[in-house]
Amino acid sequence: MELENILDFKASAELNERLKEYGIPKTFPEGTPILNENAYIKSIPIIQSGSVKVMRTDEEGREILLYYLNSGESCIMSFLGGLHQDTSKVKVIAEEESEILFIPVEKIRSLIKEYPEWLDYIFRLYHKRFEELLEVINAVAFKKMDERLLSLIKKKVELTGNKSLNVTHEQLANELGTARVVVSRLLKQMEANGLVILGRNNILLK
Q: How many domains is the chain built from?
């Protein structure tokens, strides 16, 4: 796998080569689970192409979207769980077809010792994910569901670069932690207001 730069910043040639040496590349079709909750973390994923979503499920099976990961990014929760030999507290799913490089957990500590830029990468991930989780808390606590739904649609459009989204009302409801009927009602209101055009399992952002 030829990769000029594996991380989301211009890493040194030495670090890139080491990641290529340690990494195991895999491709996941859209909608495929990459990491399940309560599974032991044996490797750290670094997204090379596509995007993935990180979800949290409660005891009753309700889900909510925490954040997305794009090319060059990794999941800080996987880092922490892997380093402490803990199980995953989140579920990771391919938002679109994604190529991922998996770095074995046993190589993480040596990379931290050898490459300060790798440790800086971990800290930057932690900071970014913390800010995104604060946004989730703020949205759940203070924003109305129609605002959250429109924001989610715009985020998906930004990720895919396509204003036409192939997504079901059920999928959107799961990511927002609400019921499908609520999403369907709000989408119809948005269509009436000229914000979207609805099709079968398709939403066009105007």
A: 2
Q: Report, as an integer, the average pLDDT of 20-34.
A: 95
DSSP label at residue 165: E
Read off the pLDDT of each residue in 150-163 and give the average, rounded to a whole number. Answer: 91
42 is written with which tokens?
């044996």
Residue with tokens 């211009």: 10
Is residue 61 located within the same domain as residue 82? yes
pLDDT at position 141: 87
79 and 112 both lie in a single domain = yes
Q: Which residues contact 91 (CB under 8 A, 6 or more apart)?
A: 33, 35, 36, 37, 54, 55, 56, 57, 63
Residue written as tokens 């679109």?
96
- Name the residue type at position 64: I
Contact 3, 16 (CB under 8 A): yes
Q: Do 96 and 102 contact (CB within 8 A), yes or no?
A: no
3-state secondary structure of 77: helix
Q: In this predicted structure, what is the pLDDT of residue 4?
A: 66
